[in-house]
Design goal:
By secondary structure, the protein is an alpha/beta fold. The protein has one domain (about 5-360): 3-Layer(aba) Sandwich (Alkaline Phosphatase, subunit A). It is about 25% helix and about 15% strand. The N and C termini lie far apart (about 50 Å).
């Protein structure tokens, strides 16, 4: 019987903010433990610097122009992993971000949640297609995704089929909030967090108009401390969630859709609208069950370049399914030399000095 397949997508997690990737101050003991048991990829790159196209690339194995989600007014044009696996798998999808909204979320529900939806350009994307069960949670609900996965897993105890689950969490992305784990950051910052940084508007805005009295270095240090606090909280929640998973029978893939920018001097902040290393280089960690054919030995570190488009064909092969026209490599043995690509058709980046916002959505009606 094929193994179970668990895909964990951590929104906006940089590759360099974890213990097992070299950050000494990181508080990621569980992820570090998993890295010692699994396989880590030090040069994994995503296909885009923002959530919608990058997550879609992970679950389809295609570049954004291949799967179609290049703008907020597009839909999937390609099948996702659960559909490609076939009927032999139970499948679950969980989204925790507006870019992963399924078609069955009504306008009324979105309005009640305070979700901004511009009806003239924002259509539902088809995220639920191919999944037997798909659950969506507003980004403010940090508990829902983990709880829903655990409840689903417990509730299918009598189902003998192997399963595939996608668990997406927005926890790390939301360091702009004033949650306890991202304001009590003295272990990272060495001092209390400045009051203006406890809560602020998500996006590049705080970098453009820093709070009075804060230097650029103070701003960067404070935001990175909040971000590291969110990473530590994800580590804790992942430990709880995986306690209910039979790791002896389950392939676990932990990856991010994109990174995050904290370099104000170079105007490489937040994400979207650019294709720099801080956004494109993402962590990738895979746990293969004992006895998996051709799997690298536990604790292996792979420095060969790879892409998030490699995840889908690898999981399909492990699930015994055909990969069709997917061009991605098998992550059990990626080629030592290759070109990897990224593309961004959904945002327009305006350099300093241009009229208008430095980062704004691409408007198809004007360009």
């Amino acid at each position: 019987m094929p193994p179970n397949l668990l895909l964990v997508i951590v929104d906006a997690l940089r590759a360099d903010r974890l213990g097992f990737t070299g950050l000494e101050r990181a508080r990621t003991p569980f992820l570090d433990q998993l890295a010692r048991r699994g396989v880590t990829y030090t040069r994994c790159f995503t296909t885009c610097g923002w959530t919608l196209p990058a997550c879609a690339s992970i679950v389809t194995g295609l570049m954004p122009t291949g799967h179609g989600l290049i703008h907020h007014d597009e839909r999937f044009r390609a099948a996702k992993i659960p559909a490609l696996l076939g009927d032999g798998f139970a499948t679950l999808g969980i989204g925790n971000n507006g870019n992963l909204v399924p078609d069955d979320i009504s306008r009324e529900e979105l309005d009640a949640a305070g979700f901004e939806r511009r009806t003239e350009v924002w259509k539902h994307f088809g995220w639920q297609e191919g999944f037997e069960t798909y659950r969506w949670f507003h980004k403010q609900d940090k508990d829902g995704p983990f709880r829903a996965f655990s409840e689903w897993l417990t509730g299918r105890a009598d189902d003998a089929r192997p399963w595939f689950a996608m668990l997406h969490t927005n926890l790390v992305h939301d360091y702009d909030e004033d949650r306890p784990w991202c304001v009590d950051v003295e272990p990272f910052l060495g001092r209390p967090l400045p009051a203006p940084l406890r809560r602020f508007r998500d996006g590049p805005w705080i970098w453009r108009e820093p709070p009075d009295g804060l230097s650029g270095a103070d701003l960067r240090d404070g935001l990175l401390a909040k971000y590291d606090g969110c990473v530590a909280e994800f580590d804790r929640r992942l430990r709880e969630t995986l306690s209910g998973v039979d790791l002896g029978r389950t392939v676990v893939v932990i990856v991010s859709d994109h990174g995050e920018g904290f370099d104000g001097d170079a105007e490489r902040v937040h994400h979207c609208g650019r294709l720099h290393d801080d956004l494109l280089r993402v962590p990738l960690l895979i746990l293969f069950p004992p006895g998996t054919a051709n799997a690298p030995a536990p604790g292996t570190t792979i420095s060969a370049p790879c892409s998030v488009i490699d995840i889908a064909p690898t999981m399909l092969r492990l699930g015994g399914a055909a990969t069709g026209n997917l061009a991605g490599a098998d992550l059990r043995d990626p080629p030592e030399r290759r070109a990897v690509y990224a593309e961004d058709l959904g945002y327009l980046y305006l350099p300093p000095g241009e009229v208008g916002e430095r980062l704004r959505r691409y408007d198809r009606t004007r360009h």
